[in-house]
Amino acid sequence: MVDSVAVTEVSGAARALAAALGCGLLVGLERERRKGRGATRVFAGIRTFALVCVLGAAAALTGSVGLVPVGALLVAGLAVVSHWRDRSPDPGATTEIALFLTYLIGVLCAWSLPLAAAVAVGLTGVLAARERLHRFARQWLRPYEVRDGIILAAIVLIALPLMPDRTVAGEGLNPYQLTRLLALLLAIQSLAHLSQRLLAAREAIALSSLAAGFVSSTATIASSGLAVREGRAGARLMAGAGLLSCVATLLQMAVIAAALQPAWLAWLWLPTLVGATLALGLGLWLVQGALAGANAGANAGAPAPVDGAQAQRMFSLRNAAVVAGVLTLVQVGVHGLGRWLGPVAESAGTLLAALFDLHAALAAIFVQGTPPASGAPDRLVWTLALALLVHAASKSAVAWASGGRDYARWLVPMLWLHTLPAVALILWTPVRAG
């Protein structure tokens, strides 16, 4: 027993030291390539980084409480002396900080090998991407994008963690969920803005809308509507973007069914395929038509001209806050109405929930049971179909409220044009008979 424990401890220590050596060599290899030559060369290269990382692991493996801090002070002192003696025309502290972090990676190897390896790979990636990161920060990013990015980061990293995740001032009003919805709206607007800069207009609209739809199709429709209301894009173009986000809604319905109750896939695969294909085709038609109209100088669907102040922003914080507040009030009203209805029917609460969050409503339906193997649709199937209709009505209202009449004129008919066939196929029974 004693021998087996000792062998296990030695084996664990050997793995930690080997991992530390590998991590140090990985980071050191990148630094060696940038070390330079002559009097201006950097003091630390591949051997120094490897030894420092092994030093950290060895210090941690000894179990001595004071040895790890002593090693950290030694490495920090070397880094300070190196920086002080640096004679290069543009001295930086990257190598010195990377050396100290490599020591900490070695310490991590004694505690968690996966975490240490992940930090080492991440550090090496950041060091290797020096030119691209500098070019991205100095040339590609625009000043207003930096400003808006700081605002979004402050909301996500500071405001959101400080918000209480509980209901206040009545059931259904959750400050954390409200702040998260606001951050989501701003993130989707930022994603669409940056995609349009990175890609051609058609590909940017399609990819960003599809990706955002997997997060929240309703929020994507609201964000697209805000772009129309603020004059940053045309109604037809943004209607196509909103419609493309609905593809994700239908695909997620099938994914949730597969995860919670696979028996539902027999009812849903055909409606999902037809509905998603129609949404994709109609969305691309709207986007292509809007861009073609813009290129030809037509007014229908072409992005509206914007002034300099409107263009210098990734999102509108005020308008996003208004939409988030409206959606939250709807959620509070739905919750209150559900309490007022009492035990009327479980399906009524599900339909009310579908006004705001379709996938939560679908999950509630799927966990209640399986659909009939054949024959006419039962209560759960009808509830599922009605939930899709209710959610389409909710999206229509959001489109009108966020983007106005022109935006809703393009989006709402297409929204129902792909929803109604999917609902009809869910309720269509001959294909599943006997």
Automatic annotation (TrEMBL):
<keyword id="KW-1133">Transmembrane helix</keyword>
<dbReference type="InterPro" id="IPR025105">
    <property type="entry name" value="DUF4010"/>
</dbReference>
<keyword id="KW-0472">Membrane</keyword>
<feature type="transmembrane region" description="Helical">
    <location>
        <begin position="12"/>
        <end position="30"/>
    </location>
</feature>
<dbReference type="Pfam" id="PF02308">
    <property type="entry name" value="MgtC"/>
</dbReference>
<keyword id="KW-0812">Transmembrane</keyword>
<dbReference type="InterPro" id="IPR049177">
    <property type="entry name" value="MgtC_SapB_SrpB_YhiD_N"/>
</dbReference>
<feature type="domain" description="DUF4010">
    <location>
        <begin position="184"/>
        <end position="403"/>
    </location>
</feature>
<dbReference type="Pfam" id="PF13194">
    <property type="entry name" value="DUF4010"/>
</dbReference>
<feature type="transmembrane region" description="Helical">
    <location>
        <begin position="380"/>
        <end position="401"/>
    </location>
</feature>
<protein>
    <submittedName>
        <fullName>Uncharacterized protein</fullName>
    </submittedName>
</protein>
<feature type="transmembrane region" description="Helical">
    <location>
        <begin position="97"/>
        <end position="129"/>
    </location>
</feature>
<feature type="domain" description="MgtC/SapB/SrpB/YhiD N-terminal">
    <location>
        <begin position="17"/>
        <end position="135"/>
    </location>
</feature>
<feature type="transmembrane region" description="Helical">
    <location>
        <begin position="205"/>
        <end position="228"/>
    </location>
</feature>
<feature type="transmembrane region" description="Helical">
    <location>
        <begin position="149"/>
        <end position="169"/>
    </location>
</feature>
<feature type="transmembrane region" description="Helical">
    <location>
        <begin position="407"/>
        <end position="428"/>
    </location>
</feature>
<feature type="transmembrane region" description="Helical">
    <location>
        <begin position="320"/>
        <end position="342"/>
    </location>
</feature>
<feature type="transmembrane region" description="Helical">
    <location>
        <begin position="348"/>
        <end position="368"/>
    </location>
</feature>
<feature type="transmembrane region" description="Helical">
    <location>
        <begin position="42"/>
        <end position="61"/>
    </location>
</feature>
<feature type="transmembrane region" description="Helical">
    <location>
        <begin position="266"/>
        <end position="287"/>
    </location>
</feature>
<feature type="transmembrane region" description="Helical">
    <location>
        <begin position="240"/>
        <end position="260"/>
    </location>
</feature>
